[in-house]
Amino acid sequence: MRKQSGVNLIELMVAISILGLLLALAMPNFSRMVQDAQNRTAAESVLNGLQLARAEALRRSTQVRFTLTDKEGKVAWTVGCVNANICSASIQERGPDEGGNNARVGVTTVALPKPLKPDTFASILSAGAGLDKPAVVTFDSFGRASAPAGTEISRIDVTNAKTSEARRYVVTVGAGGQVRMCDPDTRLGGTPQGCT
């Protein structure tokens, strides 16, 4: 007769204790990873909205406007024609309740320096900054940002309301209509994801 062996209660308790300890150590990193992902998703949403507005302006050969619509800084936007007789004033929109709840945006209309300086993105735009009045970018029929510098969005910072440790993303809009998302903590020389 063969003797059967199994796991006794002490071995099971030791294994559960080790698993619990590993989970407790990994939890803060997992939480930050979730907040980083929410910020990235929000930044990509803003980038996609700007690219959509530019593409629609080119396709329809008319002015199309991207507007951030939430004054508290939640990621909500609308893309629509400036002239409602040509096309809808709301081609596409994203509500503040879509996606992550913790990502926030702040904007500035101050033109970015040319060339970019190493400290251009050192200061963080706080959630809701620049959103007390309509924050817009208008693209003309050539896909360029059509408003004079200093009147429309030039930079959008995506931060996190839950933790300041979460990765920040920056979306920039150039006068020629170029739209770019970057990580201000990464150097441009090492990767195209860097800002400066």
Please tell me about this protein's structure.
The protein is α+β, with helices and mostly antiparallel strands and 196 residues long. The chain has one domain: minor pseudopilin epsh fold (3-Layer(bab) Sandwich). 27% of the residues lie in helices and 20% in strands. It has one helix at residues 9-60; strands at residues 64-68, 77-81, 92-94, 103-108, 135-139, 155-160, 169-173, 179-182. The strands form 2 sheets. It has a 4-stranded antiparallel sheet, with helices on one face. The protein is elongated, with a radius of gyration of 23 Å.
What's the assembly state of these chains? single chain
Largest sheet: 4 strands, antiparallel
Overall form: elongated
CATH class label: Alpha Beta
- The overall pLDDT average reads 86
Query: What's the order of the H and E elements?
Result: HEEEEEEEE
What is the radius of gyration computed over CA atoms, rounded to a whole number of angstroms? 23 Å
Strand content: 15-25%
CATH overall fold name: minor pseudopilin epsh fold
Helix content: 25-40%
Number of domains: 1
Uncertain runs with pLDDT below 50, 5 residues or more? none
Output the strand order for the largest sheet.
3-2-1-5
Cα end-to-end separation: 74 Å
CATH homology superfamily: minor pseudopilin epsh domain
The CATH architecture is 3-Layer(bab) Sandwich
Total beta-strand segments = 8
Structural class: alpha+beta
**Treating each run of at least 4 consecutive H or I residues as one helix, how many helices?**
1
